[in-house]
Design goal:
Layout (H helix, E strand, L loop, with lengths): L14 H9 L6 H5 L5 E4 L14 E8 L4 E6 L2 E9 L4 E7 L4 H4 L5 E11 L2 E5 L2 E4 L10 E4 L8 H15 L9 H6 L5 H9 L4 H32 L11 H5 L7 H14 L6 E6 L5 H14 L3 E5 L3 H15 L6 E4 L5 H13 L4 E4 L13 E7 L6 H8 L6 E6 L5 H7 L4 E5 L9 E6 L4 H13 L3 E5 L16 H11 L5 E4 L5 H13 L4 E4 L12 E6 L7 H8 L9 E6 L5 H12 L3 H12 L24 H17 L9 H13 L1 H4 L1
Parallel strand pairs: 5-7, 10-15, 10-16, 11-13, 11-14, 12-13, 14-15, 17-22, 18-20, 18-21, 19-20, 21-22
Antiparallel strand pairs: 1-9, 2-4, 2-6, 3-4, 4-5, 6-7, 6-8
Length: 684
Amino acid sequence: MADLKTDVRYLKGIGEKKALALNKLGVFSLYDLISFFPRKYEDRSRICPIAAAMDGESLCIQALVADTPRLSHIRRGMDLVKLRAVDDSGVVDITFFNQSYAKDNLHRGESYNFFGRVEVKNGRRSMINPVYEPSDRAGQVTGRIVPVYRLSAGLNQRSIMQAVRQGLDSCLDKLPDLLPEEVQRRCRLSQARYAYENIHFPADFEALELARRRLIFEELFVLSCALGRMQRQRSTDEGIKLSPRDMEEFWASLPFRPTEAQRRAVAQATEDMCSGAVMSRLVQGDVGSGKTLVAAALIWLCAQNGYMSAFMAPTEILAQQHYDTLSSMLSPFGLRVGKLTGSLSAKEKRQVKALLQQGELDVVVGTHALFSQDVEYKNLALVVTDEQHRFGVNQRSALINKGARPHVLVMSATPIPRTLALIIYGDLDISVIDQLPPGRQKVDTFAVDESYRTRLNGFIRKQVAEGRQVFVVVPMVEENEELNIKLKSAQEHAAQLSALFPDLKIGCVHGKMKAKDKDAVMAAFVSGEIQILVATTVIEVGVDVPNASLMIVENAERFGLSQLHQLRGRVGRGKHKSYCILVSDSDSPELRSRLDIMCKTSDGFKISEEDLRLRGPGDFFGSRQHGLPEMHVADLGADVNVLQQAQDESRRLLEKDPQLELPEHQALKERVDRLYEANSAGFN
């Protein structure tokens, strides 16, 4: 038996050239090869009579070659082989382009299985370039369910099938089964050997489904075990042990009543921080749910214990916003709030750094400047990161390493279905703030097409006349002529609005601008100097403009539901009635139904569930940095029930064998370790 780690080039029948082509598909080892699952299947097991074949249908027929195949040279580089094939029901004309060998492979009077797409014109049926094999030797490319794989240059379907077959034959007899027998029994799962054989070469569709279910479960089970081990490890890591304080003292200082969800999140985090273990907690809440208040309460707790905190935001303008909010919440207690951002003068930076080194600040708010090499913290106990997914792994760990195992609070306003959150943030405990503070405005949402443009422009004018401000979001920075679809661009649309409203101040921000220029425009909008802001999704995160009452999203069909919800959350943050207008000329029923969802609900978690179902998990975030490994067969949107079952079984197993040290779990441990190594950036 070949080792699963064996390089594919050393497998019989593959060699250097084919191995290089497989490498382009991400296949390097024997394990990669047998885990290179088909992207779809073709049912070539059912033989269809010629007369029953419908136009455009791909199917398998069994027929006699009625005449000797004819070879024609049409022009240089173009050969044709033509023949007729018959069965008891009718005749089909078969043509091969540039397959001159078909003339010698197909013989008059002999029966073959042909699989391909049928065309029907004027009652005559034809096939172009079908695959074929003798009927009495069928079973390789016809007469069965055939896998279809992703291809790269130098490979065709037959060569990949042969490679996979060779790979399976070399290891299937002794393939280690990762799943304990009791798990297989409880969950009614097939054995590994059966699953790998039938995912590639299924005996029938029932066998294929059994194989898929087993491999989906295995993939999610391994992932759950990896995350579960990390969580258990973290819970035993010794951290800064705080002494509890009466939180009512903090709550009583506020000019408003916190929600029960906020109180619950603070209580959960407080219990962690007073346990002696390191806290790593995600506070997940919808836009405007009050996550910053949770952070403020924990910063207060640290200060009462004589420790400082660091609060990291992804942009300067957000850092300023959090600085202002925290200052107002914490100043009644005499807590000292500092700010450290790139735009400060060299003198100001030196002053703040000196205060941090001396322990003269209770909390510092900033951007990536917080983890600069020359920044030292005297007694850092809590690190808060806002909009976690906007930071790279190295940035987060650089700040955490500034302290002696500080507690970590992660905040995200991107609603994610809980099951998916358990994967993306699998090593974190999760608190969900599922209530909005009293007084938070509902944003009326409408989906319209271009026929409403005149009315929409009139509505913009009305809102501005009432003293309000307007966001206009577009999908692109500038025009792209290569795209077949006409999309609004930030620069183009800003120019159009300037011509339409010459008396108004219109700003434009996009991702290609320098950070300081972007911040300057945003600051002008926040201050009210700019009435209409045209932007790409750079404004998706965080900026609080209470006076903005209208959000217009152009080409709304180009955005995911969760993204649209984030954008909508930029308005309705003040006392004024607010609106979100989704503009799209798409006539796709699916896209229109997506926009209808936005109009019907403002619940970010319901929207995210629908987004996950429609688009899959890959679109929640644009980077692998979030700890979401690539799935070979599982679909986190469609396989939620299996994921839940896999998580339950992994917890049960880890209670018995936390480090997977028992001999019967060694194959599982190796796979878990391999997964961790491959995704170490995302898991840390």
